[in-house]
Design goal:
31% of the residues lie in helices and 24% in strands. It contains 7 helices and 11 strands. The strands form 3 sheets. A 7-stranded mixed β-sheet has the order 5-4-1-6-10-7-11, sandwiched between helices. Strands 2-3 form a two-stranded antiparallel ribbon. The chain starts with a helix and ends with a helix. Bound molecules: cytidine-5'-triphosphate and the ligand C[C@](O)(CO)[C@H](O)COP(=O)(O)O. The site of cytidine-5'-triphosphate (CTP) has 22 residues, from helix 3. Keywords: Isoprene biosynthesis, Nucleotidyltransferase, Transferase.
């Protein structure tokens, strides 16, 4: 069935109430974030505005009333959570994978074990995107619930886009690319659990986000406006920026 036909069928079928679950991949090592003087701690556990980064991420997600339960997927060598009390709506699974896609697939299987239905929705959100707001998550849910496929937060490209080629070892501009239809993918990304797991299993471990897997399966995910502040902490400079934004928000 095409996405258009599936949307029409969804709109005309009697109201059902699939639940929304959140899955937070938290098993990366943060190689690109490691500065010469930084502690050897995965970036999601480094302190930002007085708390480990992942706590800000969790606070935003847990504040969304429509999220039934949040699953954090950590590495099997992670001892950060030992002895820490967790909220009843938070589950932790130590089945992180070698890639983000594997971590997410493992988490989806765990959600099904926890009682989620294949037709339920999942919002997959990077632990390292600690600036997402509850309003942005709610906007994504509002946009995706009536949709057959689902979608993702994304940011329309704000700058002029250059395509590069290496000339004599240095990157030089090959051409300026039309940016009118270009968006930067953010998270959360919201899809049906069963469809996403099937898409990820078919796509393999190399896809870098959930939408890519759904695209390979023939779907056209919705693009829902996120925001510049919903950036992923990726490089050493990003910590100071994230801290400044969080402190300003209070
Ligand atoms: N095997 C992996 C790799 C990444 N992630 C998670 O996916 C999110 C986004 O990934 P990214 O920023 O690429 O994190 P890292 O893989 O940790 O970073 P790097 O590529 O710099 O090592 C992060 O919350 C990270 O913890 C994960 O759960 N399992
Ligand atoms: C999922 C993601 O945050 C979308 O932008 C991103 O692709 C994950 O991190 P990576 O830098 O691509 O590994």
């Amino acid at each position: 069935m095409t996405d258009d036909k599936a949307n029409a069928a969804a709109a005309s079928s009697p109201a059902s109430a699939p639940r929304c679950w959140a899955l937070i991949p938290c098993a990366g090592v943060g190689l690109r974030a490691i500065a010469a003087d930084s502690p050897e701690l995965p970036k999601q556990y480094q302190s930002v505005a007085g708390q480990p980064m992942v706590m800000h991420t969790l606070a935003a997600m847990m504040a969304v009333e429509r999220i039934h339960q949040v699953l954090l997927v950590i590495s099997d060598s992670d001892d950060f959570w030992q002895g820490r009390a967790t909220d009843g709506r938070l589950s932790i699974s130590a089945h992180g994978g070698a890639t983000r896609a594997e971590t997410v697939s493992n988490g989806l299987r765990e959600l099904l074990r926890l009682g989620a239905a294949a037709e339920d929705w999942v919002l997959v959100h990077d632990a390292a995107r600690c600036l997402v707001t509850t309003a942005q998550i709610d906007a994504l849910i509002d946009a995706c619930l009536p949709d057959a496929v689902g979608g993702l937060l994304a940011l329309k490209l704000p700058d002029t886009l250059k395509q590069a080629e290496a000339v004599g070892g240095a990157p030089r501009v090959r051409q300026t690319v039309d940016r009118a239809d270009k968006w930067l993918a953010q998270t959360p990304q919201m899809f049906r659990i069963g469809a996403l797991l099937a898409a990820l299993e078919a796509a393999g471990a190399a896809v870098t986000d959930e939408a890519s897997a759904m695209e390979l399966a023939g779907h056209a995910p919705l693009l829902v406006a996120g925001g510049a502040q919903n950036f992923k902490v990726t490089y050493p400079d990003d910590f100071a920026l994230a801290e400044a934004v969080l402190l300003r928000r209070g």
